[in-house]
Amino acid sequence: MELIKCNKVFDGEQRKYRHYSDTLKSEMTFSLYLPASEEPLPLVWWLSGLTCNDDNFSQKGGFQKYAAELGLAVVMPDTSPRGESVADSQDWDLGQGAGFYLDATEEPWRENYQMASYILGELSQIVKSLIPDFSGKEAVMGHSMGGHGALVLGLKAEERFSSISAFAPILTPSDVPWGQKAFRHYLGQDEKKWQEWDATALLSQTEKAPAILVSQGDQDEFLTEQLVSTKFLTVSENQPEVRYELQSGYDHSYYFIATFIEEHLKFHYQHLTN
Amino acid sequence: MELIKCNKVFDGEQRKYRHYSDTLKSEMTFSLYLPASEEPLPLVWWLSGLTCNDDNFSQKGGFQKYAAELGLAVVMPDTSPRGESVADSQDWDLGQGAGFYLDATEEPWRENYQMASYILGELSQIVKSLIPDFSGKEAVMGHSMGGHGALVLGLKAEERFSSISAFAPILTPSDVPWGQKAFRHYLGQDEKKWQEWDATALLSQTEKAPAILVSQGDQDEFLTEQLVSTKFLTVSENQPEVRYELQSGYDHSYYFIATFIEEHLKFHYQHLTN
């Protein structure tokens, strides 16, 4: 593993690493923010959206100020396996940059597209070894495809994450074009198997949901087709820990994220230090 | 003039415009942040560095939170004229993306490279017409080449700007490779003419300097060759309004800017509302 970049920001270090992942059979990069705090650090996962890599949030998210103030380590994985030997498609919403944070079962994807196992397993071990004094507590958050990822991984590994949050997430991937396309290719035609990676389906099977915060801009250009909330809101009606906030005038961009990242990190902090 | 993008951020609007500049004889873009405040708005100019355009600061500067809180409009011009009919070079530090905020006198540059006149004249008029209730007060700031630009334009139009600030500026362009190359091409061989566009030379001719704040990271990779401060510090010794702050561990990146932008905007706010 190699540290390829390190920038001081808000007294802490924004680091970027390169490593070979055995799980993904691919060279990967990831970014990690370590605040200067000498207290034990909880770890927050940030999962990015379609076409992104680990740089988008570190450069445009404006989160470091709050991570520094609250004393949170934040890790940003890439959004898929990468490289010439890794399966890909011509489309920006399938293949490299579009891993959907699941473990693929179908050809030609299953050899490399094991993002859920990578994040919950191999990368977790690496990242925890890089935090000088890890508090043992974790939270997960993300944007769009990464909001789907945060909800799904957070609900699947519920014992592990104190809280989950998402900006403009794909809430019901089984019902919308982005999710259906990804699931058909990565998981196959059997739609029953899709439910395992669908946040709304997982939430409907949960008796007592963990603390979840969802922020959604009402001027988001993908809201009505890809980020539909109807089923999710129904399923979460009797879940007192689930909060869905519609923000007036905001779109799908990182400007939206930058505006509400303080609220999200404070939400996680509260649960991580409880 | 055309509004080509508008994103809500921290309750305000991050806008991007395209227009044809008569001064530059070139299609130009610029960005403008307007906070939601209903008070009269002062205007802060941000001048970016080499290779940048008007997007870098708007996406990576993390300034909108403070501009919103303080009630400041912020305008971000591009760093040079643009387009196929505009003179350029193969080098990233000369030509398009490297206008140096001056008015060129030499061929082939003088036809388009009139950035000082564009910013102080044509663009000022346009921007002021876009601010619903302009307070009449202005400040100027920038990074690297844009820090040089902020100091030079701020000192040349001293009656106009309440305060000037710069991150990692080229303080003595006449003495360092970036500045010497640009000045030789844009202004010609006569080094006496360079003094008109050299912040340290201008400051040495000023009896009572305006309020100036300079922030410089001590791990900046360009510090010892391009951002040399010796002469500037000597010249500003008897200038009580000039502050030069060396920040330990910070480099030349936008992470440095994001960390100290709150301090800079509060510095300007104090002078803009005095």
From TrEMBL, chains A, B:
Keywords: Hydrolase, Serine esterase
EC class of the enzyme, as a word: hydrolase
Protein name: S-formylglutathione hydrolase
E.C. numbers: 3.1.2.12
Active site, UniProt feature: S144 (charge relay system), D220 (charge relay system), H252 (charge relay system)
Swiss-Prot/TrEMBL catalytic activity: S-formylglutathione + H2O = formate + glutathione + H(+)
One GO process term, biological-process aspect: formaldehyde catabolic process
Gene Ontology MF terms in the entry: carboxylic ester hydrolase activity; S-formylglutathione hydrolase activity
SUPFAM superfamilies on file: alpha/beta-Hydrolases
Transmembrane segments: none
One GO CC term on file: cytosol
Organism domain of life: Bacteria
Record's function text: Serine hydrolase involved in the detoxification of formaldehyde.
Gene3D superfamilies: alpha/beta hydrolase (3.40.50.1820)
Family from the record: Belongs to the esterase D family.
Species name: Vagococcus allomyrinae
